[in-house]
């Protein structure tokens, strides 16, 4: 695991917290989001200058009632703090509008004069009305970003930009004056691994066991993964513990990585099964088929369907050409589409 400080955007993100930003962090599927965020929260809390909390609202995914969503988020926050902030009572409409604010305000008050930072994960899983209500509660207190008053920085972690989820309500355009995404100061994408990152990752293995890896194997790992963290880790794990026996510390060569690559595709692991789920969406299916057919030059970056596929981490633009995110995904999609 690479520490957050090694990530190329960490300095920028730390500056956002220092400057009291409310912002969005885009993280495609299986890119190491939770590991990154939890480690980052621990690092923030370790210097005792601020208090940070990671809150996942995934439990609200299937809840459609706004009051129940707010009540559930409140419970999650209380569980994260490991204290009873205030008694849970039946929620009225007025309480619904104030519940998130009251919870966060009480928490801020308790830890003052230290500033409070919240990382809200899986925000894009909220249904649209609940999401708008959630954002409006933050927006209403947006000017109060001070210790003892309200969280100084809030990070909304999503797989996609929440703007697309809230531009319409009941099939009507949301007017600018009611557009709650204005709480957002910026949007950042969590980057993939660079070649140096991949080398540093295996260096941890070398330090622990003495096992080496050839430069050719490292280059091949980067080319096959395009730096996608799940793919990198899976290639290394399989090469060191399945292609070779767990107690065999022979030098890893390109041949070992090639065998690991084939194992990943043949095993149809959960991550690759998610690729099949993506293909159930006609818009995504059409994009993937167009790329496989060699028609990717006809697709523009300025296209909502393409943006969706990019947000999901399955395609990318390089040198003005749209392509599948990495060769392993490419082969997985070929097998899924042409084996039917």
Features:
single chain, 340 residues, alpha/beta, Rossmann fold, Helicase, Ruva Protein, domain 3, Arc Repressor Mutant, subunit A, 3 domains, 5-stranded parallel β-sheet, two-stranded antiparallel ribbon, 9 strands, 50% helix, 11% strand
3D structure, described in words:
By secondary structure, the protein is an alpha/beta fold. The protein has three domains: about 5-190, Rossmann fold (3-Layer(aba) Sandwich), CATH 3.40.50.300; about 195-265, Helicase, Ruva Protein, domain 3; about 275-340, Orthogonal Bundle (Arc Repressor Mutant, subunit A), CATH 1.10.10. Helix content is about 50%, strand content about 10%. It is built from 14 helices and nine strands. It has helices at about 10-20, 35-45, 65-80, 95-110, 130-140, 165, 195-210, 215-225, 230-245, 255-265, 270-280, 280-290, 305-310, 325-340; strands spanning about 20-25, 50-55, 115-120, 155-160, 170, 170-175, 185-190, 315-320, 320-325. Strands 2-3-4-1-7 form a five-stranded parallel β-sheet, sandwiched between helices. It has a two-stranded antiparallel ribbon with strand order 5-6. Strand 5 (about 170) and strand 6 form a beta hairpin. The longest helix has 19 residues, at about 95-110.
Gross morphology is globular
Helices, by number, come to 14
What CATH calls the topology of the largest domain is Rossmann fold
**Beta fraction:** 5-15%
Number of strands: 9
Q: Whole-Å distance between the termini?
A: 37 Å
Give me the CATH superfamily of the largest domain: P-loop containing nucleotide triphosphate hydrolases
The arrangement of helices and strands along the chain is HEHEHHEHEHEEEHHHHHHHEEH
From the alpha carbons, calculate the radius of gyration and give it in angstroms. 22 Å
What's the structural domain tally? Answer: 3
Specify the helix fraction band.
Answer: 40-55%
The CATH C-level name of the largest domain is Alpha Beta
Strand order of the largest sheet: 2-3-4-1-7
């Amino acid at each position: 695991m690479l520490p957050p400080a090694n990530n190329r955007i960490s300095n920028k993100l730390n500056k956002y917290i220092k400057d009291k930003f409310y912002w969005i962090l885009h993280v495609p599927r299986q890119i190491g989001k939770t590991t990154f965020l939890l480690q980052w929260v621990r690092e923030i809390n370790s210097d005792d200058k601020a208090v940070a909390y990671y809150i996942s609202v995934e439990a609200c995914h299937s809840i459609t009632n706004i009051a129940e969503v707010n009540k559930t988020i409140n419970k999650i926050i209380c569980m994260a703090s490991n204290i009873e902030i205030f008694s849970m009572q039946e929620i009225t409409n007025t309480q619904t509008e104030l519940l998130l604010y009251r919870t966060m305000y009480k928490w801020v008050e308790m830890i003052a004069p230290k500033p409070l930072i919240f990382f809200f994960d899986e925000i894009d899983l909220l249904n649209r009305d609940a999401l708008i209500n959630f954002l409006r509660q933050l927006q209403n207190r947006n000017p109060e970003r001070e210790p003892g008053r309200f969280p100084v920085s809030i990070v909304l972690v999503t797989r996609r930009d929440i703007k697309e989820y809230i531009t319409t309500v009941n099939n009507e355009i949301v007017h600018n004056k009611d557009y709650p995404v204005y709480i957002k100061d910026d949007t950042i994408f969590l980057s993939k691994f660079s070649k140096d990152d991949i080398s540093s990752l295996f260096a941890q293995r070398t330090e622990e066991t003495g096992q080496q890896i050839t430069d050719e194997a490292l280059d091949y790992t980067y080319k096959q993964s395009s730096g996608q963290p799940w793919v990198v880790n899976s290639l290394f794990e399989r090469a060191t513990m399945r292609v070779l026996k767990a107690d065999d510390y022979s030098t890893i060569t390109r041949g070992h990585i090639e065998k690991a690559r084939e194992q990943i595709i043949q095993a149809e692991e959960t991550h690759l099964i998610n690729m099949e789920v993506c293909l159930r969406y006609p818009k995504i299916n059409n994009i993937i088929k167009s790329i496989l057919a060699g028609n990717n030059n006809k697709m523009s970056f300025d296209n909502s369907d393409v943006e969706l596929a990019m947000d999901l981490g399955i395609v990318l633009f390089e040198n003005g050409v749209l392509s599948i995110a990495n060769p392993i995904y490419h082969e997985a999609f070929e097998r899924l589409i042409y084996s039917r």
